[in-house]
Amino acid sequence: MKNKSFLPWIILFLISLGSIPIILHYKGFTSAKIVGVIVVVSIIAALWFWRINTRKKSPRKAKVSLSVNDKHWMRGHISFYKRLNKEDKIIFEDRVGIFMADVTITEIGQERPEKETCIYVASSAVIAFWGLPYYNYGNLREVLVYPTNFDMDNSLNKRGIVNGKVHHGGLMNNTMILSLPALETGFQIDNDKQNVGIHEFSHLLDKSDGKIDGIPEYLGEEDKKIWVGLMKEAMDNIKANESSIPAYGGTSEAEFFAVVTTYYKECPSLLKIKNRPLFEFLDEYFNQEKG
Fold first, then answer.
1. Contact indicator for 165, 176 with CB cutoff of 8 Å
2. Number of domains present in the structure of the chain
3. pLDDT tens digits along 122-148
């Protein structure tokens, strides 16, 4: 049954291919060349049709079910989840289960990743995208969890300066790397405006439009202008040491978005006090503003 949808393409290809010698004999080179072009176009169209058809029919993996113990563990270790109301907790659990089914989580040095590690990674993703009407995490296919920090070339190094990385382009374009100690610390200390998991998934949100430039997707032109203005002012204040936003947010527009998103997700009340315009913009963007 699956192959029947491709039968017309196969017939068209064989007929076109078989007609080339006949046309070449009776009609000449030009006519045969035209038919050859038609054959090539047909092959391209058939491959495109196959790609789209296969993608549509690919069954989605069943979401990972969280046990009562998992949910109890989350209440003790994921502060964002603990603060949610009953209905939102169910949505959060559902999205964590979907993420764990859809994205491969590889814990380096372990035959299988620890369940807690998977929940930390999935919770980071859900928190970063929380409030948005979409949460498919782009083309992310795998999250590598390293036992230590690492260097810029992705080699393990306890003294490495990198604890999280979203790849943009190249062979690892669909891969994220996180340091397990930094990932755990981000959730253990939940009021320091820093969480490497949320930070890196904020980069992934920024990457949704094809660029990691500090301007997230789904902003209208007017909102982009407002956001760029808020970002420039806030970055100037960071550089002048007159801001509560962590200093790393002043290094580039891309890092600013990830840093301030983490700040907003972890300490929204503090951001509201320290920078109300920035807070209100993010509150609206993440659909958290109250009418």
1. yes
2. 2
3. 999 999 999 998 777 878 999 999 999
